[in-house]
Structures are given as structure tokens and as C-alpha cells.
Amino acid sequence: MSRPATFTPPPGTRAHRLRTARGDFAALTGEPAGGPVLGTALLLPGFTGSKEDFIELHAPLSAAGYRTVAVDGRGQYETEGPQDDERPYQQRELALDVLAQVAALQAAGGTNRVHLLGHSLGGLVARSAVIEDPAPFASLTLMSSGPAAVAQPQQERAKLLQDALAALDMAQVWEAIQGLDAPEDAADLRGDGEDLRRRWMRNSPAQLIATAGQLRTEPDRVDELAALGLAVHVLSGERDDTWPVPLLDDMATRLGAERTVVAGAEHSPNTDRPGATAAALAAFWDRHPAA
């Protein structure tokens, strides 16, 4: 999970509902202030995260000419979802949600193919969506998202969280984890920020249980993705405990992908070093136009 510096959208970014054939999704959209729109990017947050994790990317990417649409997935923060049924949160269901979001963006006009970005768990969902149907995508960026299941210590933390959510309510789990490392990132859920607590409380427990299971058991689908021939960008910080950086380097080689390591960043370069991250994203998208 990223820890955004603010939950307040910057000027030029609007909060709205993205209406799709599979339901409505809470979204933050940044529009270029002037000049041509070079492309549209759909941004998927990670485990326990939300659309606000990308809040510092909108302005620099808008300045570079890109429309950015960050969404809460089904059962994440401000997008509703079942509270006690894990079936709607299976990975293929989440991937179909992404394809519906892309179709809605295309139907609204102003975009052809879409640049897709997934952070951490969002990268696994993004990969699944592209494998399901690569046609609507101009490129895929896997941000701090690896080839298969997370590292063993993170698998153990994810299992602890699953067990806690099965036995306790969301408020009790929040209190319990204040002194513990979070399942994806050592600093994830600690702290007393009211915005972070409010976001946590609005997540669906069933969504968290199901997606924690995906982090623990994800198979290696790198060869499936490589076979598509899509432009892929593997971007990470220079340190990552969720998927170690050498593992991400190897995945990029297997994919024939472009590789960016953001200096001074860890698992969430989108919040650790947003300026450098946005510059790398815009440069990659410039090399792979959506038209």
C-alpha cells in the first residue's frame, strides 16, 4: 500500500464515478490543461490502497500531455462491493472490471488504446486483464509488481491478515495492526492518520481476504504476457521487500521490457518519488503512442 501525502485532489483533477457495464467505480481524473491529449492512462492501486495513491502523479503527467484516470477497484475504498462474498474478487473478475473501465473510457471519446498501469497487486490484476484481451491496450506498466507470489515473509503477513479479518471486524483489525508490519510494505498501515483509517474502514473484508490470497498464491504468468508482444515497462524503486529488485530485473529481461529503477524509492515510487516516476512514465508512453 502507498501512503499518499494527501487525499485532496490537486487542481485540474476531478473526483467522479466511472460508469461501466460492470458497475460504477470511484475515480480521480486529471486532464491536460492545454495542447493535445497524447493518450489516456488507467491507474490501478495495490493491496489496501486506493486511487489516492497516484494523487501526486496527475499534475506532472497532465503537464506532459496525458489524461490520467486512477480508480478504486471493486470493494476498495469508495467503490462498493460485497462485504462477505469473496467470489466477485477473484482475479479474473477484477480483470473483467478493468476491461469494462477501459471500454467506458473509449466510449466516452477522446481515447483509442489505453496505457495501463498497475501498482503491486494492481499489477497482477492489470497483467490478467491484458492477457484476457490485449487489444485495447497501448502499453502495460508493472510498478513494483512481480512475476508470481510475493516474497515468503510477505506471504506470511498476508496470511496473518486473512486470519485476522476472518475473526475480527475491521476496526479491531486496524487496532491490532498498528504495532505490526503490514502485509505488503513494512510501513503500510502503521500510523494514526485519519485518512488512512477511514480508507481502511471502507474496504470490503471479503475483498481484502481474496486479494491477500492472490498475493500469496499468484502463479508465474510472465511467458503468457511476453507472448502478446505488448510494450511493457517494469518500474520499481531501488529497494523492495515485496518483490526483490533482482527478481524484477529478471522479469523485465524475460519480458523484453523497458526497465526503470527510481532512485531513492522503495515499494511505492508513486509516493516516494512522484516527480521522477511521472517523468519515467511519460517518457515510456511517448515511445509507445496510443494512436
TrEMBL record:
<feature type="domain" description="AB hydrolase-1">
    <location>
        <begin position="42"/>
        <end position="280"/>
    </location>
</feature>
<dbReference type="InterPro" id="IPR050471">
    <property type="entry name" value="AB_hydrolase"/>
</dbReference>
<protein>
    <submittedName>
        <fullName>Alpha/beta hydrolase</fullName>
    </submittedName>
</protein>
<dbReference type="GO" id="GO:0016787">
    <property type="term" value="F:hydrolase activity"/>
</dbReference>
<keyword id="KW-0378">Hydrolase</keyword>
<dbReference type="InterPro" id="IPR029058">
    <property type="entry name" value="AB_hydrolase_fold"/>
</dbReference>
<dbReference type="InterPro" id="IPR000073">
    <property type="entry name" value="AB_hydrolase_1"/>
</dbReference>
<dbReference type="Pfam" id="PF12697">
    <property type="entry name" value="Abhydrolase_6"/>
</dbReference>
